[in-house]
Amino acid sequence: MTEPITASYVQEDDDWKVTVSGSGKELSGRAPGIIAARDRADQLVEKLSPPERSTVVHLLNGSALEFTAAYMTARLTLPEIEPLEVPPPANGKAKEKIDAKPPVPQGKELPKAVDEAKAPEEKAEPAKTPAKAAQTS
Q1: Whole-model pTM?
Q2: Angle formed by the axes of helices 64-76 and 34-48, to 10°?
């Protein structure tokens, strides 16, 4: 049976102090945030015990739940980012390029016979609706 390792976190201003203890040893470290402190704790745990034999309990103010809440809040909270400003186009050419069809890659063009057969279909008048067809009969 393995002895659990305890990682205790204490916030000191903007930094976090982490103390890892287990197997009769104790190691400490500092980090600039709770996420970095959690990573630092992992590094300290590796010095105390082989990774496959360690069960680590992370505590904030003596509570694993409080640590988990603080850690997950930090992980899931996105930093404030200013909205992206898109400058207007310098001239009307940008609009033309957006509306234009992209060139067809070489080797992907339709055979000339298909293009010629397709052209009359595109120019054909739309079919009459059944109501109009009945009126003309």
Answers
A1: 0.55
A2: 130
